[in-house]
Structure formats: C-alpha cells, structure tokens
Amino acid sequence: MLDRAPAPSAETGTPTRPVAFRGAGFAPVANRYAGWAALALVIALWQAAGSLALVNPLFLPTPWGIARAMYRLGASGALWHHLSWSVMRIGTGWIIGTTAGVITGFAIGLSSQARSVGITFISALFPIPKIALLPLLILWLGIGEQPKIATIALGVFFSTAISVYSGVDAVPRNLIRMAQSFNVPFSTIVRRVIWPGALPSILAGFRITASVALLLVVSAEMIGAEYGIGAFVLQAGNLMQTDQLLAGVVILSLFGLAVGKLINLLETRLLHWR
Amino acid sequence: MDLIADHISHRFGALDVLDAVSLEVAAGEVVGIVGPSGCGKSTLLSILGGLLRPASGAAELRGAPPAGSLNPLTFVFQDFALLPWCTVEANVEFPLLHVGLAPAGRRALVDDALRRTGLADFRGAYPKQLSGGMRQRVGIARALVVRPAILLMDEPLSALDSQTRELLMEDFIGLLADGAMGAVYVTHNLEEAVRLADRIVVLSRRPGRVREVVAIPMTRGERGAIGAREKLLSLQNELWSLIRTEAIDAEREVQHA
Q1: ipTM topping 0.95
Q2: Could you tell me which of A87, A48, A42, A70 has the C-alpha nearest to residue A241?
Q3: Spatial contact of B192 and B234, defined as CB atoms under 8 Å apart
Q4: pLDDT tens for each residue of B113-141
Q5: A177–B126: do the CB atoms touch at under 8 Å?
Q6: Chains A, B: CB pairs < 8 Å
Q7: Are the Cβ atoms of A273 and B85 closer than 8 angstroms?
Q8: CATH of A63-270 given 3.40.50.620, 1.10.10.10, 1.10.3720.10, 1.10.260.40
Q9: In this complex, is the C-beta atom of B77 within 8 Å of any C-beta atom belonging to chain A?
C-alpha cells in the first residue's frame, strides 16, 4: 500500500497573481472563405471601375468583357483549337523531359559513375534559360513542332533530374540498411524503398516542372507558332484585342490551377502516409 | 549456429574505431556489448551483421542455421527503420517479399509475428499512428518473421521513454526465454545489459578493445526475483566502475570535437 503524501498547505497572507500568457502568435491559420471574398471584392472593384468609365477598356477590359470574350472563343471553337495545340506541346514535352529526368535522376542517385559525370553537366546546363536555345533547336530540328517540344522537354528535364536525385539522396539510409540486412535485392530496394521514399521530392519537382512547361510553351508559341494559347495571346495583343488577350491569360491561369490541383490529388493519393 | 568476431579492427578515415575485437556468441546465448560513447559498439554490430566491411579481421558463422530460418542474422534497429508508407502488416511482411514464399505462407508467418508481439489489432495502422514503443514492436515483429538464429540489437530501447523501455524489456525477456534465439545486445544502459545478457563484453574507449567479459551468474528467470536485485545492482556498479573514467574522457573528447 502506498502512503499518500499530504497536500502542501497554501500560504494565505500573500496575494496571488496570474501567470502572464506569453505563447500567442506564430501559428497563422488561413481562412479559405476570406481568400475567395477578397478575390470577389477585387473583381467587383475592377468591374465597377470599368463600368463607371474610370479606366479605358482598351487598356483594361472589365471582367465581364473578358468573360464574354472567353464565351465567344469557346462557342466558336477557337479556344479549344488553340488550347489543344498548347496541351499537345506541353504534354509531349513534359512526358519526354520527365521520363529522361527520372531516369537520369535515379542514375545519379544510385550510381557513382553517373553521379560523377551527371552532376557536373546538370550544374553547368541547368541555369541556361531554355527558351534561349529555341533558335538553335529550330536550326537543328526545323520549324515544326519538334523545337518547341524539345525546348519544353529540356526545361522539364533538368528540374526533374535534380528533384529526383535530391529525393533519392534524401531517402533515409537506415531504411536502405534495414532492407540490406534482410538480403533484399537491389532492384527490390529501388522499387520498394527508394522510389516511395523519393516520391515526395519527385512530386514537388512535378509541380515546378508543370510551371516551367507552361512558361516555355507560351514563350515558344509567341516566338514561332500559328496556333496555341501563346500565339493567340500575341496575336490578340498585336490587334489591340485586349479582352481576348486577357481571356487567353485567364485560360493559362486556369490551366495552371488545374495542373496544380491534379498534383495535389496525386500527393493526396500517393503520399497519404505522411 | 554460433557467431564469431575474429580480430575485427576498423577505422573511419584516420580514426581507429575498433582494435582486434574477438568474441563468440554461442547458439541461444545473449551477449551484451557495453562501453563508453564512441567505442565502436554499433560499428562492431554492423560488421557482425554484414552491413560494414571491417578493415581487418572477420565476422564468421559456425554451424548451420536452424531449420526454417530465412535470415539467420537479423537486426533490430535503434530508430526502428520502419517504412513509413507501409502499414504494420506490410512492414512485417517486407523481408518475406523476395524469399519465394507463397502468399499463404507469408501470411501465416506475418500473423504469427504480429501475435507474438501483440500487434494483431494494429496490422492496418501506419507507423506515424503508433507510439515509439509500438513502432519498436513492429521492428521486433519484422525481425521475428524471418525466424532468426541471432538477433543483432542496436540500442533498441534508447529512443524510448523509461516506462516503454520497461515494457519492451519484459517482451525481450519473454522472446528470448526458450533459448531458440541468441542475441547480441548493444547498449549504453548497464541495467538493460545485466537484465538481459548471459555475458557482457565491456569495450574500452576508442579504439574499442575487449576490456573485460563479465558473466551474469543467474538465469534471466531468476533475475526478476526481488532477492536478485541487489546482486544485479552490484554487477551494474562493477560494470560502471570499469567504464566510468573512460566514459568521462570520451564525453569530453566528443564535446571538444
């Protein structure tokens, strides 16, 4: 049986005071409704400024004007035509760049020889703005789709390779040692330990390369394309059709948001264990 | 099956870590390895388990592994080394995926390991959902599933709080009770060493050499009795007196490094 200790007797005469709370702050919480409300407010003010003729609609069309332009583009089929060209270029370039980047990243992450050679090349070539290579790629590949797709693929490749080998490097070594201690073969360690361990970094890389691909497709289309959202935005600017120009920009923004949502979905599905 | 360290020496760069360490772990025997910080305890265990190639000397096995053993030398890691993307069940099944067992056979082994470690109700949980003690139980279940001859335990309790350590120590004593498995138990905690080991190898300060081998003159069953406490405490003090001066020197060396 344990002896229960008596409670300490309280000092009665001395007054007490509360301990001051010092732990507030440094825990920001976003209110999702506030964000939407702020966006709606900005659009409303923008619309009001246009409707009251405070700004020239040639330089800044109203949101309603942009929406009408988008509707007309959609109804006429021009939007889908331009969008499909851009999506084809982004999709092809991204898949080629990502495939090559994942293979190279894994090689650098797993092989001493590939690391010795690969990191030097990637460090030297990564900082080059890939759009600067487009004229050279046109010389090499002709004026068709190949140079645009190659520019996107190059831009995607370097970022992907870096995020993949960084992800492979970040896989805790203790997990690899654990697998080795059970004589798990190399290929199984790569498939079941390194791949899932590197996946958070790889998916973070996808988020970056999606933006890179979007930037490069618009730039490439502005330099030399008849169809595509970039070409459409440039033509609209040349013709002073600013409502159509901004409609193209909004479509690009929506496309970027959709890709971001897709990657969020992938992260939720594949990284639920985090 | 016996495990033998034959004059194992090792260095990391210019740093000599182990110097001609020789010891033997007989079948079913539990050997504790203690010593001051940085004396090469964990390095020695990695070499014994084939995860590190020694600079000289060798780790050797004598005799055949027990029938049905899928991985005679099996580690239990200090940091559990669980795959965070796998459930408890998948973590325990992981070492069996490449050994060519049929799914039903794997399932039976996993069920048995989960039952022995009290994890049967947690098979669908992810490591992040478990307490430290439960995570280490998963690590132990994963070790048991391959029917090891010798467990190589590298400070398996040092990442846990004292109450969980006590509970897991009771589990270890239960698992090693029938003598079917031997173990090499690396620890800095002398109390754990005297409660679990049949013999304790005391390593010197870096480079680690075998300084003393202390036998614990009672069975693990007897050590639970109240009357045994005094004897165990005196053994623990004896070990501490062997290590204390070097532990102080080692600590100062680490702080100056």
Answers
A1: no
A2: A70
A3: no
A4: 999 999 999 999 999 999 999 999 999 99
A5: no
A6: 50
A7: yes
A8: 1.10.3720.10
A9: yes
